[in-house]
Structure formats: structure tokens, C-alpha cells
Amino acid sequence: MDGPGTDLRALAGELAGTAAGAGSGRAAATVHGGHEATLRQTVIALRAGAELAEHENPGEATVQVLTGRVRLTAAGGAVEGDEGSLLVVPGERHGLAALTDAVVLLTVAKLPG
Length: 113
What we know:
Mean pLDDT: 92
Largest sheet: 5 strands, antiparallel
Oligomer: single chain
Radius of gyration: 13 Å
CATH superfamily: Jelly Rolls
């Protein structure tokens, strides 16, 4: 999906529909970068109650909430965000749960190594 621009609203709606019908309650699409790139941006849709299980942070990361409400959890505590919120992902194991149907933009800059 790399290109000069991406309509995030349209993509969010498409992925939300996919997530609603998915057994996992999730759907995602990379809109910039990839596994080989330093910077990667991925739109992730989560049906209410769905989550991304606790996992390591490969570098610096943020979660921008495009729609809905989410909870970002880590050993240091939890923070909630709704539409328009920008959450900084801690540099430790963390998870993300949808409190309502939600779509987020995950931005990760991998650390060298």
C-alpha cells in the first residue's frame, strides 16, 4: 500500500468491516514501510473486546486512535485513549485492547540491532 498518500478514513472503514466479521476481531494493513524498513505504519482495526496480546516493543512506537476507544497496558500501568488521542508505547512488553470498536494507526521506528 505504499504510495504518495492513503485515505486513512476509507481504509479505517474497510478494516473495521473486516474486523467485525473476523474470528480474531482484528484486521490490519501496512500503509508505509515494512519489516525491512526502519519506519513502519500500520492501520489496525479491533472489534470491541478484541486485543493484541502482550508483546515486545521493537523500537519507538506510538498509537494514534482514529476511531473508538482503546486501552494500552504495560507493567507500569495502563492508559486509555479515544478518537484523536496519541499514546506513546512504552519500551517494555505491552498490549492493546479495544474498549469499543476501534481503529488505530500504529507507528514504529525500529531500533538498530
